[in-house]
From TrEMBL:
CDD domains: SDR_c. It comes from Roseitalea porphyridii. Belongs to the short-chain dehydrogenases/reductases (SDR) family. It is an enzyme of class 1 (oxidoreductase). Pathway: Carbohydrate degradation; L-rhamnose degradation. This is L-rhamnose 1-dehydrogenase (NAD(P)(+)).
Length: 260
């Protein structure tokens, strides 16, 4: 196991990729604090999902707790750190994963929607990373932060003009904090998933033309599963990646490079 006796915080860990990350980290021996939002204002929030992930982690023989909180609220990061320290005594790993993508056109984008997506995806990743990093510096034994960016950091999306800049921003955030935190032994990287079938894009990918286009474009021939991403996060969080910081790993079955 790669992460025995480690404590991880996973934001947006109740569903989709975050749930996959939480389970992958637990499979490698980590105990996990799962953050989630639990409200339905995104249109696809599901109460009770976080408890199901806790139960799955417990079946793997590890411990987990779930804590509700909006990552865009500056109080959430410190609250997650406090919960991790109270229950597990420390924080070794952060997966800054929470994100939303309510598809919308550019020309009539409501300013509130744009600010909401920027707030959760960008400010949320910044604020939680800052809170966790301060605790890791205080602890004095290093750590690992892995943010969920996207291939959307590298390519645009007609209905994602409020979203793709946040994914580029999260990647850039990890590059800068890798420099700031390297001297403290804290490594900071991002993963760039491609099309992972989750609640975020289930409706969009149910369009038969889009579905056929995506499937054709993915050389490995299938959509990603949350644990396809989770296992890469576990690697980046582990000592196997001890000399990797400021880096980004594309996890997309080859979709990004398959243009021509
Ligand atoms: N799906 C994909 O193809 C890709 C996704 N990504 C990125 O992966 C990450 C996860 O996406 P995905 O798993 O698909 O999304 P899901 O919609 O399946 O899950 C989103 C998760 O984030 C939580 N969440 C939403 N808003 C907040 C908030 N304000 N504060 C805390 N938690 C919140 C949700 O909690 P709750 O259930 O309580 O609402 C849920 O746990 C995002 O950052 C996304 O940008 C990147 C590339 C591809
Ligand atoms: C939700 C999208 O389908 C998904 O999100 C991403 O970040 C990917 O690039 C896909 O566009």
């Amino acid at each position: 196991m790669l992460l025995e006796n480690k404590c991880a915080i996973v934001t947006g860990g109740s569903r989709g990729i975050g749930a996959g990350i939480a389970v992958s980290l637990a499979r490698q021996g980590a105990d996990v604090v799962i953050n989630y939002w639990g409200k339905t204002d995104t249109g696809y929030g599901r109460d009770g999902a976080a408890q199901a992930v806790v139960a799955e982690i417990e079946r793997l023989g590890r411990s987990a707790i779930a804590l509700e909180g909006d990552v865009a609220d500056p109080a959430t990061g410190p609250a997650l750190v406090d919960a991790a320290v109270e229950r597990f005594g420390k924080v070794d790993i952060l997966a800054a994963n929470a994100g939303i993508c309510p598809f919308h056109g550019f020309l009539d984008m409501p300013v509130d929607l744009m600010r909401k997506v920027f707030g959760v995806n960008m400010e949320g990743a910044f604020l939680v990373s800052q809170a966790v990093a301060n605790r890791m510096v205080e602890q004095g034994h290093g750590g690992a932060i892995v943010a969920t960016s996207s291939i959307s950091a590298l390519v645009g999306g007609e209905f994602q003009s409020h979203y793709t800049p946040t994914k580029a921003g999260v990647h850039s955030l990890m590059q800068s904090v890798a420099i700031a935190l390297g001297p403290h032994g804290i490594r900071c990287n991002s993963v760039m998933p491609g099309a992972i079938l989750t609640d975020m894009n289930r409706e969009s990918l149910s369009d038969p033309d889009k579905d056929a286009y995506f499937r054709k474009r993915i050389p490995l021939g299938r959509y990603g599963e949350p644990e396809d991403v989770g296992d890469v996060v576990a690697f980046l969080a582990s000592d196997m990646a001890r000399y990797v910081t400021g880096a980004s790993v594309i996890v997309d079955g080859g979709m990004y490079v398959n243009l021509q």
